[in-house]
Amino acid sequence: MTATATVAPAPANSPGRVLFASLIGTTIEFFDFYIYATAAVIVFPKLFFPQSDPTTATLQSFATFALAFIARPVGSALFGHFGDRIGRKATLVAALLTMGISTVVIGLLPTYAQVGVVAPALLALCRLGQGIGLGGEWGGAVLLATENAPPGRRAWYGMFPQLGAPLGFLCSTGIFLLLTEVMTDAQFLAWGWRIPFVASAALVFVGLWVRLRITETPDFQKALDRDERVKLPMLTAVREHPFALVTGTFALVATFVLFYLMTVFALSWGTSKLGYAREHFLMLQMVGVLFFALTIPLSALYADRFGRRNAMIVATVLIIGFGFVFAPLLESGSDLGVLAFLALGLGAMGLTYGPCGTILAEMFPTAVRYTGASLAFNLAGILGASPAPYIATRLGERYGLASVGGYLAGMAALTLVALLAMPRRR
């Protein structure tokens, strides 16, 4: 009599584990990204650049901020290659490590007063590392969610990694507010600003622990079983899916422009031109980000019911309209007006951001999905986010805030054209 050996099937990812793994990773990544964005306004111009001209120092700091968006397509190509070749899980772990190490090192860098021009050079190098890590993180997190989603719930699942953006922003802004409350400005500039960067190491360990406990996504496992992998995912995505890449990129340009106008530019302009105290404006921004977090799930519900493309078209039309009230609200001179500005702008941001990950994932086949979705997302970052604070500052100083609203409306009109050119999908 012989015993029959049975092989237990690979454990499936539970919905809770999948959604938490996709959410925690992007929350950590965006926390790291936003503490840099905040420091680029209130710390780096004073500590990492010459002080002969404060405006020039701020613009130089914004230039290092933009470097990450240039590096993000490199990250999408690098991590996308391995994500489409060896799997989503291992690639997500590597992306999180890249981002985390770069962020911690920023908190240990010497300043311009200590090492001169070496300081901004090292800062730029770490910023590139942040960009490469986030370039690989976002696409993998979206695929982890959407490729595990049940029928009819893909936009809802794809919304969870998107929630990492407002949660990361709230955490990063909250810690800067706490630090400014418990220490003097001199202490904050001397060493306090380093705490969020170094402390992010603890968050990275949490993210790694969660992600190492998940299994591969069903879609990728099916692609392995059918031997559908391609040798060079980047080449295949560019050569065989150029229309998806181009329309996917421009469909997200307004999303990036809007967010970095509402966060980096608004903080800089509010504290330098409108006379707001840094702590006060950050508190107003935190209230505004609550609307960002609220409208992300609303947009996902709408997208699952009426379609991702329709959801983003509605959001983009609202962004165009917001461009015309941009200046009157921000320059209103009252907290109520500024809160309305932040609530409307960041609320519209949530409406466009919620379904954007799902719409990009659905534009590419499994074999090149990690690469294609990540590349389109990060190319949109180059066109939309990286120049936005710089262009807006220049426009605002030369032509007034109304020109900044016009810039936003114009970029949103470009996005609307791309969305209308997309094929309809059920």
Automatic annotation (TrEMBL):
A Pfam family per the record: MFS_1
- List residues traversing the bilayer: 30-49, 61-80, 92-113, 119-144, 156-179, 191-212, 243-269, 281-303, 310-330, 336-361, 373-392, 404-422
Task: Decide whether keyword Protease is in the record.
Answer: no
Question: Which CDD domains does the entry mention?
Answer: MFS_ShiA_like (cd17369)
Topology relative to the membrane = Multi-pass membrane protein
Q: Which UniProt keywords apply?
A: Cell inner membrane, Cell membrane, Membrane, Transmembrane, Transmembrane helix, Transport
Positions of the Major facilitator superfamily (MFS) profile domain? 18-426
* Coiled-coil features, chain-numbered ranges: none
| Gene Ontology CC: one annotated term | plasma membrane
What InterPro entries does this protein map onto?
Answer: MFS, MFS_dom, MFS_trans_sf, MHS_symport, Sugar_transporter_CS
State where the protein is found: Cell inner membrane
A GO molecular function for this record?
A: transmembrane transporter activity
Stated name of the protein: MHS family MFS transporter
